[in-house]
Amino acid sequence: MRRLIWIAAIGVLLVAGVLLVRALLGVLGQPPNVQHGGGVEPGAPTRMIQLFYGSRDRVGLEGEDRAIPDLGGEEAMIERIVTEYLRGSRSRIAGFNPAVRVRGVFLAQDGTVYLDLTSELLTRWPRGDGLEWVSVGGLVCSITENVPAARRIQILVEGKIIERPPGAIAIDLPLEPVGFRGFTEDWES
Amino acid sequence: MRRHQVAAIALAVLPCLVTPGIALGAESIIQAPPGTIAVIPADGREPQLIPRVEHDAIDYVPLGGFARAIGARFGWDPYSYRGWIETDSLRTRFMLDSPILSHGSEVLQLGAPLAYDENGLLLPTDYLRLLTERWHGDRIAAWRSGAGLFHWGVEAPVFRDLRIHTIGRRTTLRVPSPRLPESSLLWSSSEGLEVVLSGVAAHPESLTIPEPHGLIHVREVRGAPKGCRILLDVDRQALGVDTSYDEKNGVWELTLTSSPDDVAKGGFLLVRPVARPQHAAGTGPVIITAWVDPGRDTPESHGALVDLAQRIVSTLADTLMQPAELLESQGRVEDAISANRARAALFIALRTEGYPGGEGKLQIVRASSRTHWVPLDGPERTQETTARPLLWSETAEMTLLEADRIATILASHLEVYRGPRSVTRDARPLRWLEGLTMPALIIYPAQMGDRISVEKLFDPLERAGLARAIAFGISEALAAGRSERLP
């Protein structure tokens, strides 16, 4: 009887060991903090991008790596970045309505990106100054950090400039990333 | 009679009405038939009539018909709602319901969106010229809306002399132009005022540049694609600028004024600030207000914010040389106007933060840029026009730097009170703060999702301590600012 118990215990330990090794290999085989974006097909060329969402520790932005299809020109890339950004984050704070869709992207010669989004953007606008700041800032920085030609972002809704912004951020004007970096780090250092 | 029948009849009689290759600018009496536009190329090709439709009081032309009339191809993708017109080398893209068009890498903002009806994709007629001029090298287009005539590919008319005259406190530069040119004004601290005109060109050899007069000194006239650039030195007394077109005499005019009233009434754009930057900090009141968010704040947090503001004002009465006022908020924009009119030295708004994460640190936030502004108002303006004038952007930048300086001193006082690393400072593109003409900050004393932070806000003893820390910070910052400005 005791022998059977020993054999059973060794068997359980072996199974647990195999499962542990498989789990570790799975974790080690995957780059840390990387999610695959929508539409990435096996074997298709991909590009690593960094998206910016709200930190859970402080009112500010944190980067998150994603892989998205590497196809088309700069406008197509911006459209994919924004679509990926709007999918949100599992571990960080995203304030925009995930039902928002990209209607069109135009990149002007002076570096202004005209980003045309659907009206769902305004039907559930991020509530609260901090959440609004990191949501809009995350969108702006996610584009400008990944597409060097993009210097500022003019948000349009259904093709029009928002003449009366729904919150505190002046989204009726092109937004530059410098407006979202703040000087928090300077102060804390 | 249906519109297309009118158009068909009109097309048949068009050669009788319009002459191909007609000289642009001639006092012609010809007119397109009602409900149509005559597209008249300057290269002698046959004019064409296309329908003209109206939607929501906006005058439109079918883009497909217009493209064919100027010899281009038209395409439309019903799935992406995008249209385009193109030749072998050029392509301009449009999107339905969108007031932008994309020409190569250039994106142009239109004042009205494209529309769609049984005629297809419709372009507002106001933008026929904007579109066509991008398609035709150095030549220009001319749109006479009343007559329904669209001439394109013609040479820009040329002027040989500029005139300046002064009446009272206004000086006007007059540029002969048989049609309304497109104009834009550019400020540069080194170059002065640059006037960019499209649709009228300066004669390259026999242009007479007038002597300096009143507020205007014409320094140079340069050629530019489809037009010209006029560089002006502007007298330091000038405060506002306005442009207009005298259709009867065919003259485009730029008027500068040194009268503050002209700017105050809204007819002129402000070209210089009317206040010395030194005036901004140190002499007006310090304004403290509580900005409550009715969707998030409870009556308790509302009361706590107002109480904190009152305590700050009370403490400032003992520590500050200038008055401190509690502003009962009437709305963000109204508060900005009140503060600007009061010529406040400093504006501080208190607000709760609703961020769903974080440790509930105190936050101090200033604007990241000054792109909006609310006009100044007050009797002192006329006395201050003798101060060294600065461009608006210069004073805005100085105001932001001053806000940084005050935020730094405030943060050091708050850290002494709350502990190290308890305060953050940020610059954000907040439109309410960008409308203020003095250093302005928002202080977030509590984060509503953080229990400890909320408890501190609701504790009267904590509020008293916080109010003292903020008031001492303000007093030190303004006192230091005054001593720095002393000669």
Annotate the secondary structure layout.
The complex is a heterodimer of chains A (189) and B (487).
Chain A: H1 2-28, E1 34-36, E2 46-54, E3 61-69, H2 74-86, E4 102-107, E5 112-117, H3 120-123, H4 129-146, E6 152-157, E7 160-161, H5 178-181, H6 184-188
Chain B: H1 3-17, E1 36-41, E2 48-51, E3 53-55, E4 58-62, H2 63-69, E5 73-77, E6 82-86, E7 91-95, E8 100-103, E9 106-109, E10 115-117, E11 120-124, H3 128-133, E12 140-144, E13 149-154, E14 158-159, E15 163-167, E16 170-176, E17 182-188, E18 192-198, E19 201-202, E20 216-224, E21 227-234, E22 240-246, E23 251-257, H4 260-264, E24 269-270, H5 277-280, E25 286-290, H6 299-319, E26 324-327, H7 332-341, E27 346-353, E28 362-367, H8 381-384, H9 392-418, E29 423-428, H10 431-434, E30 440-447, H11 451-458, H12 460-485
Parallel strand pairs in B: 1-13, 14-19, 25-26, 25-27, 27-30, 28-29
Antiparallel strand pairs in B: 1-2, 3-4, 4-11, 5-6, 6-7, 7-8, 8-9, 10-11, 12-13, 15-16, 16-23, 17-18, 18-21, 20-21, 22-23, 22-24, 28-30
Word description of this protein:
The complex is a heterodimer of chains A (189) and B (487). Chain A is built from 6 helices and 7 strands. Helix content of chain A is 38%, strand content 22%. Chain A has helices at 2-28, 74-86, 120-123, 129-146, 178-181, 184-188; strands spanning 34-36, 46-54, 61-69, 102-107, 112-117, 152-157, 160-161. Chain A is an alpha/beta fold and 189 residues long. Chain A is elongated, with a radius of gyration of 22 Å. Mean pLDDT of chain A is 81; it is low at 25-33 and 183-189. The longest helix of chain A has 27 residues, at 2-28. In chain A, α2 packs antiparallel against α4. Chain B has 487 residues and is an alpha+beta fold. Helices cover 28% and strands 33% of the residues of chain B. In chain B, the strands form 7 sheets. In chain B, strands 26-25-27-30-28-29 form a 6-stranded mixed beta sheet. A 5-stranded antiparallel beta sheet of chain B has the order 5-6-7-8-9, with helices on one face. Chain B has a 5-stranded antiparallel beta sheet with strand order 15-16-23-22-24. In chain B, β20 (216-224) and β21 form a beta hairpin. In chain B, α6 packs across α12 (460-485). Chain B starts with a helix and ends with a helix. The chains are: A alpha/beta (189), B alpha+beta (487). At the A-B interface, β4, β5, α4, β7 and α5 of A face β9, α9, β29, α10 and β30 of B.
